[in-house]
Amino acid sequence: MKMPVIKRLVETQTLESLVAAEEALLEEQTPAFEVEGEDEGEQLTHVFAAIFILNHMQDHGTDFKTALREYTAKVRVSIS
């Protein structure tokens, strides 16, 4: 998971395009736009994180950094 890639997706893609990219990756297809990542798993992680962050920003009226911290906190909890 690379934060600069997630930030770039949040800044350049709409929620709708990210959801479409997530669906494409899950169906082993190529998304309509480039998603950086070493493999499809990492690309999917980047897209999923960007979707979570955009939703969090809209739902809670927060900025990118706050939403990113919330996402990484959830990841840490799921790992431990």
Automatic annotation (TrEMBL):
Pfam families: DUF6952. InterPro entries: DUF6952. This is DinB family protein. It comes from Hymenobacter latericoloratus.
